[in-house]
Write a structure and sequence with these properties.
Blueprint: H1 9-27, H2 29-43, H3 52-65, H4 68-76, H5 80-86, H6 97-114
Length: 119
């Protein structure tokens, strides 16, 4: 068991999307981290003060301002904290619509093969 089997369908789907983000991060870290920082800045003050989304975004700021290894760990981690943080990802807009569609189509096919009868 790799650990992914314990993840819900939604968490696995998020993991697949963030693995695609990781590929973009590997090829252009400055641009991708810049996009994430810009998203965090744009979202500052948008969420309910003291709410979970605000806390997750603050954690993302710390992670992104830390090491790239820390970013990678959260992008592909299957631990509860990584899964929760990916719900409020600052990497929106990193993947093109076409890339996102391709990842989601591949994920749906994978899910159908691995979980017959579950949609």
């Amino acid at each position: 068991m790799t650990g992914n089997e314990q993840l819900t369908r939604e968490r696995q789907k998020s993991l697949w999307l963030h693995r695609a983000v990781l590929e973009r991060l590997r090829s252009d870290p400055e641009s991708i981290l810049g996009r994430a920082r810009a998203n965090l800045e744009a979202w500052h003050g948008v969420h309910r003060p003291g709410g979970m989304a605000e806390r997750y975004l603050a954690q993302w700021r710390e992670i992104i301002d830390g090491s790239i290894d820390g970013v990678v760990d959260v992008l592909v981690g299957t631990d509860p904290r990584s899964c929760e943080l990916r719900k409020t990802t600052p990497f929106a807009g990193v993947l093109t619509d076409e890339e996102r569609r391709q990842v989601l189509a591949a994920f749906r096919e994978h899910w159908r093969q691995e979980h017959p009868g579950q949609s």
